[in-house]
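Hi V.,

Quick status before I head out on leave. The structure for the redesign project is tokenized and pasted below; the design run finished overnight.
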């Protein structure tokens, strides 16, 4: 089983290295946007607390997590299924679980690497380096990655041309970033907005950088559990045959 997983991950690594354009979206674009938006802070010599610094990073970390999960895990799985490769992989490996876990684990590691690198670049640009912020980045990505995959995994149950996947992922990303800008005062709406992975990320960040507050921890924990259960259910129910074969 381990050898099969290694073989699958090697294949996914080779496919990732062949598609170098994806690194422009996940690393170069966020860095360029950060420099454009925060140039005053970059050329200033301000001091930042851990909370201020990680709060500044939240939208960018959320962007990297969403891009990797949508395009490189869910999008690739969807495209492979609709092109017939997923059925072939399943026949060879004899395990749908390994086929799902291979890109999921690989891009968790890639996401960690990219977000930590981004955090270091931002800190150096702001004339500081803080190990606690790097640790917070690691913890936040580790906590939010699986629930993000879980809730977005619903896409795998939809039927549309796999060539439209980039449009679906783009719209999902825009909606998530737009929802993050909302700060409702009503507690029920605050909880509902935690469906947005970036809102949930911000909530987790606040929990990790402030005093323990059950009114924040409980809703976040409930959403994380629900998202993971959704992901598990979809993974079990997801057909390996393309929509054209199932029709």
């Amino acid at each position: 089983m381990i050898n099969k997983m290694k073989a699958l991950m090697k294949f996914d690594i080779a496919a990732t290295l062949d598609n170098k354009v994806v690194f422009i979206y996940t690393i170069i674009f966020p860095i360029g946007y950060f420099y454009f938006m925060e140039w005053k802070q970059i050329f200033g010599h301000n001091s930042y607390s851990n909370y201020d610094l990680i709060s500044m990073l939240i939208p960018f970390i959320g962007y990297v997590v969403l891009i990797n999960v949508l395009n490189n895990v869910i999008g690739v799985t969807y495209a492979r299924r609709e092109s017939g490769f997923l059925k072939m992989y399943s026949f060879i490996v004899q395990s749908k679980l390994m086929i799902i876990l291979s890109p999921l684990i690989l891009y968790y590691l890639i996401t960690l690497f990219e977000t930590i690198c981004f955090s270091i670049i931002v800190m150096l640009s702001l004339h500081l380096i803080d190990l606690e912020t790097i640790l917070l980045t690691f913890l936040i990505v580790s906590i939010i990655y699986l629930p993000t995959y879980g809730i977005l995994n619903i896409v795998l149950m939809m039927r549309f041309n796999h060539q439209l996947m980039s449009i679906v992922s783009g719209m999902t990303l825009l909606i998530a970033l737009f929802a993050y800008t909302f700060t409702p005062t009503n507690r029920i709406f605050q909880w509902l907005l935690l469906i947005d992975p970036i809102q949930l990320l911000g909530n987790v960040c606040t929990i990790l950088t402030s005093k323990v507050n059950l009114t924040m921890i409980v809703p976040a924990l409930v959403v994380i559990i629900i998202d993971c259960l959704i992901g598990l259910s979809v993974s079990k129910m997801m057909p390996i045959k393309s929509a054209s074969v199932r029709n």
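Above is the designed sequence. The chain has a mean pLDDT of 83.

G. will cover questions while I'm gone.

Best,
W.
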